[in-house]
Each structure stands twice: as structure tokens, then as C-alpha cells.
Design brief:
With about 325 residues, the protein is an alpha+beta fold. The chain has 13 helices and twelve strands. Strand 3, helix 4 and strand 4 form a beta-alpha-beta unit. Helix 1 packs antiparallel against helix 2 and helix 2 crosses helix 4. Bound molecules: NADPH dihydro-nicotinamide-adenine-dinucleotide phosphate (NDP) and pyrrole-2-carboxylate.
Amino acid sequence: MATMSVDAVLALAEGTLRRFGADEANAGAVARTIAGAERDGSASHGLFRLPGYVKALRSGRVKGDAAPAAHALAPGILRVDGDDGFAPLALEVMHDPLVAMARKQGIAMAGVIRTHHFAALWPEVERLAEAGLVGMAMTQAMPYVAPAGGREALFGTNPQAFAWPRPDGKPPLAFDQAASTMARGDVMIHARDGEPVPHGVGIDRDGNDTTDPAAILDGGVQLAFGGYKGSAIALMVELMASSLIGERFSHEARAAHNGDGGPPVGGEFVLAIDPGAASGGDGWAAHGESILARIEGMEGTRLPGARRHANRATGGPVEVADAVLAEIEAL
Ligand code: NDP
Ligand code: PYC
């Protein structure tokens, strides 16, 4: 492992993307997402993803000078057209108009379309909670996961993220999880490092349970968390982040992909709710704190997202795998 400051991660990501043709706005937004992931200890969506972003620029599939734009489709429905760029800039462009809409209407949703997504989802919901709103987001990916009982990949790893604002300067409750037992990125990291994955992560090309990540990646499929329950969540993410907002399913994203190793085309569904408007008062915050405090006070438990926030509080430096830096250097 190499030790790097968060600023050095940011500079490496931004400089690399600029060298491969991304403009300042796009390179900056992707680099901030990557540096935030490394800072918080989300290694599968930090510098590990930089080569994929570069490959998509190099093949010309994703625009490095995309200019995302937001407009209202209805009083509580925002559309963000990502202009065929990477998702992070489109999500930054989404933030202010979505917050304004949710404050005015009490609730608002955004459909972010024509973007290429390779990131964690907690940044966008956490930003909403920092603005005092309850946030929720989901996106599709590529077909990696079989519907419950099946052996054919149809669903993406389809993450869902949620955030809840907290009073007294506390960081929001913000968590983010794939619909698969393990995120694709983590299966890839296990394969790279020659480590087995737990049972239940995936099956091999013959449909046998396996702990070999390479067998899952090479013709096998991943499984949803919690059997048919996670499978139903993965299905709903397909519908909400694709049909509902006018974008592609994971299997349609694969059909549109040139195999360059970069992020798939797709959309993101984002919901923002004003808790004061929804609860009809301001008691929601103290009431919410009462259940969070019970979890925090219980032996053996922690709040989801607490590991990330504890990592963030250290201010770095962060540890980055030598293999990741070697791949970036080789570009
Ligand atoms: P994890 O299983 O690592 O974690 C899921 C959530 O559970 C996190 O919020 C985590 O908090 C929390 N958590 C973990 N352990 C505990 C515990 N013991 N008690 C309480 N909470 C806990 O995430 P995944 O592997 O499922 O996903 C990783 C990332 O991959 C996500 O950020 C996701 O957005 C991203 N992803 C992106 C995709 C895309 O298409 N763009 C597709 C699939 C995944 P904490 O972080 O604090 O540990
Ligand atoms: O880790 O499952 C994953 C993933 C898919 C797309 C981006 N990350």
C-alpha cells in the first residue's frame, strides 16, 4: 500500500482526467468524487475507478466536456440531462435546483439521464441532508446479478442510498448499499488480490455456489442480498432509475457499451423531502435522534455510515493499493 494525502489523491485524479481530455468542470467533479471516496475509506469507488473513467474518455464513448443542464418537467420533477458525460458533474448541477424545488413543494424528485455512473451514491444524498432534506437515490449499472432463482445476469448491482439530517452539527445519517451481496468493485478487488469471497456472493458459469471471485466474474453471476428480497429491490431500482425517468435498464446499458472498461450509460433517481413539511412541525429531528441514540448506545451496534465519517474525521492520509497506482501510472 502507498500512503497519500487526500489532496494528492484529488490532484492525481484531476490531472489524469485533464491529460485525457476532460475539461476543468468534468475532471474536477469526478476527482472530488474519487477523493471523497478515498477520504472516507470507500476504496472500491475511489482511485480504483480512475482507469475506467480514462478508458471511456480514450474510446470517445463519454464526453469530457459535457455540459449537464437541469429543467423542470413538472413542479416537483426535475430532469437533469447529463449530455453524455460522467455522472458527478450532472449530480452537482442537480443539487441547487432540487433543493429549491423540495423546499418549495415539500418533496421533489430528479431524474438524471444520459450520464455514465461509476461512483458511490452517498455524496449526493449526504449533500441533500446537509441542506436539511431527507435524501434517497438509486441507480442501475450493468447486468451482473441474476433474479432470485435464476442463473442469468439481468440486474445491475443497483445501489440505493439514504440520508437523514441530524441537528447540533452532527454529520447526517447517510448510507449506501448495493442490491448484490457484494458490490462488483469488491468482487474485482478480491479477484485482483487472490482472496476468496464469502458464500452467497455469486455462482460460477455452471450455476454452482463458489467462493472464487474469478469464477463469478468469468461467466458466473452475482447474487442479490437476502435472496428474493434483495432481488425485488434490484428489480425496483431498475424500474425507478430507468423506465421511470426515461433511461436504460442495466441490460440495455450493456448493449450500448463498447467494452472499454469504463462506466455504463444510465440514469439516477433522486428524491428529496423536506422533513418539516412532511411532519407538519419541527419535532421530527428530536424524535429521529431518539432512535439513533438507542442504536448508538446498544452494545455491538453502530450507525450505517459511521465508519466513513470516522475515517473522514481523521483528515487522512489514506492508503492506496500499489496495484491501483501502477495501473494509473501505466495509462
Ligand atoms: P457495504 O456493504 O460495504 O456497506 C453498505 C452500508 O452498510 C454502508 O452504509 C455501511 O456503512 C453500512 N454498514 C456496513 N457494516 C455495518 C455494520 N456492521 N453496522 C451498521 N452499518 C454497516 O456497501 P456495498 O458493498 O453494498 O456498496 C459499496 C459501494 O458501492 C456503495 O457506495 C455503492 O453506491 C457502490 N456501488 C455503486 C454502483 C454503481 O452502479 N454506481 C453499483 C453498486 C455499488 P459504512 O460505509 O460506514 O461502513
Ligand atoms: O461496484 O457494483 C459496483 C459498481 C458497478 C458500477 C459501479 N460500481
